[in-house]
Amino acid sequence: MPEMNCRFGNIIPMGEIPNPNEWLFISDVEYDKFFDTIDAEVLYMQMKGMLKCDQCGRLWFFWNGYDKEPICYIQE
Fold first, then answer.
1. Residue 18 burial (CB count, 10 A)
2. What is d(CA 36, CA 49) in angstroms, rounded to the nearest whole number?
3. Distance between CA atoms of 59 and 75, rounded to whole angstroms?
4. What is the rounded CA–CA span in Å between residue 28 and residue 31?
5. Could you count the other beta carbons within 10 Å of the beta carbon of residue 57?
6. Best CA proximity match to 40, nearest among 29, 24, 17, 28
7. HSE toward the beta carbon, residue 2, CA cutoff 13 A
8. Could you report the per-residue pLDDT of 3-20, keeping only the tens digit for each?
């Protein structure tokens, strides 16, 4: 099962479907391109992914897809 290591060693599982650690999002501009009926699969392909570490709260954004290095954000 795929997983990701957070900065301080917590392992974030990535293989569950649905995944309680993964959030999907889309920009308002991209979303506005969808009107009338929405094909869920097409919408899904346009979304970006984010993982949230349940230990430290870091957010790991996959801005360029899951095959690229994610960018980490943490609360101040």
1. 5
2. 24
3. 9
4. 5
5. 11
6. 24
7. 10
8. 889 988 899 988 888 999
DSSP-derived 3-state class of residue 62: strand
Residue spans of alpha helices (H) in the chain: 28-31, 40-46
Residues 57, 38: Cα–Cα separation, whole Å: 32
Question: What number of residues does the chain have?
Answer: 76
CB 26 within 8 A of CB 49: no
Neighbours of 12 (CB within 10 A): 19
Which residue, among 56, 54, 50, 48, has the nearest Cα to 74 in the 3D structure? Answer: 56
Give me the amino acid identity at 34.
Answer: F
Summarised one tens digit per residue, pLDDT across range 22-75 is 999 999 999 988 877 788 899 999 999 999 999 999 999 999 998 999 999 998
Amino acid (one-letter) located at 1: M
